[in-house]
Design a protein that fits this description.
207 residues, alpha+beta, 8 strands
């Protein structure tokens, strides 16, 4: 066999092997695509703090205690919860929760349930703690994806402690996100406009 024939034969074998390897490496046509995982806010996307930068914790599994008394898992089907907490060097903190439901209709019902819990939170706080006065304010809806709503909560104890929080619920398809910002103070200390921007970013960023 001549050198030219041997070289051509080896080249043909190499091409055949490469082709076979490519076919083996390619996913089968019937393989199900991996579901997208919702993304979370970054520290720089929180309402700016006047004297301290935000720090973002890792994304973790589970329902965050940082959502406080307003939002809970009670009366809700078992979901895979994921959350991320944020903090500053002072008295300000935040948390984001994401929940992926089995369908858009279930997510819509879940978002309404969470918003109802926030809307009625002040009543439940006062009923369980007579020494605390609480008030919820509605800051309106946001036109992002399937919608979002922002509310504020202020609590004052009989001994003078004041805390204010901003909470929002938003939805993109079958995914719901809840965002909470909080610090010491009253409604006048709450960065409503900046938090609305944060909420819009949070919903847009999910996918």
């Amino acid at each position: 066999m001549s050198m030219r024939i041997r070289t051509s034969a080896l080249t043909a074998l190499a091409v055949a092997a490469l082709t076979a390897g490519t076919v083996l490496a390619a996913p089968s046509a019937g393989a199900a695509p991996k579901a997208a995982v919702p993304k979370f806010l970054s520290a720089t996307q929180l309402p700016p703090h006047p004297t301290s930068s935000w720090t973002a914790g890792p994304v973790t599994e589970g329902f965050p205690e940082g959502l406080g008394l307003c939002v809970s898992t009670e009366g809700v089907p078992s979901y895979d919860y994921r959350n991320r907490e944020f903090w500053t060097d002072l008295d300000t903190g935040a948390v984001q929760l994401t929940v992926v439901a089995d369908s858009a209709s279930l997510a819509k019902a879940l978002a309404k349930h969470y918003d109802d819990l926030i809307r009625t939170c002040a009543e439940r706080i006062e009923a369980s703690s007579p020494d605390v006065e609480a008030e919820v304010r509605d800051y309106g809806k946001l036109p992002v994806e399937e919608g979002a709503r922002v509310r504020g909560l202020h609590t004052e104890t009989s001994w003078g402690a004041n805390d204010v929080a901003l909470l929002s619920v938003g939805r993109d398809g079958n995914t719901v996100t809840v965002v909470k910002w909080g610090q010491m103070g009253d409604f006048g200390d709450a960065p409503v406009a900046a938090f609305k921007k944060t909420t819009t970013t949070a919903v847009n960023k999910l996918y």
